[in-house]
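Second attempt. The first submission of Lin1244/Lin1753-like N-terminal domain-containing protein had a stray character pasted in from the spreadsheet, which I only caught after the job came back as garbage. Lesson logged: always re-copy from the clean sequence file. Corrected sequence (245 aa) follows.
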Amino acid sequence: MARPERNSVDYFPFLCEEGKKMFYLEETYGNDGFATFVKLLRELAKTEYHYLNLSKPSTMMYLAAKCKVQKTVLEAIINDLVDLGKFDAVLWKENNIVWCQDFIDSVQDAYKKRNNNCITFDGLLTLLDSLGIRKLKKDQTIDSINTQRKEKESKVEESKEKLDARKLKFSSTLQPFLDLYGKDFLNDFYRYWTEPNNSGTKFRRELEKTWDLERRLSTWAKNNKNFKPIQNGSAQSSGGFSKNR
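This time the job returned cleanly.
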């Protein structure tokens, strides 16, 4: 007798290493941020087809109670996770539906021995349309939605490439100071000032209203107790900066 189809899972992998998203949630919401995110993943795991329909106020209130946070806090956390790219933006903003592609990717192993595959994003759109949960506009089709989604992903990738190019340009401005400060020092300085913002569109240096590189380097050196000026133009040997870079 064939096994019946099943579209939920009893477990999901959870990486122990703290990422930037988790760091942001804990810094912003304390333990409530981390706990709520984990509980949202648990709900996605045991819910049929791994999506959460929070369009009804009562459903949102119930989930907030399960997460032991206020409804406004739950909404804020979900909105932040959408902005951080963890949850799908279109489904949430248009229909208050939580969909996490990273989660779907992580539970694929659980479906290997089943008669059915794990639902895909396209499959979810079809399902929501058939259930009347997601109302498409008259001039909107699933194909057009997918096109919009791919265009958005393409823009994000393009933005990342531009960001990398700007970081490389910033790196080149540090080259004249290599003999004075050394590679280790400049690498630390570079890593700090190229830390991207939450949306990944700008890095820390670009968020500064004023910028005097020589003064910044001098201040960085004064605040670094381990820094020792390079003698006779001999730069340190380790790190990512070199004269030929």
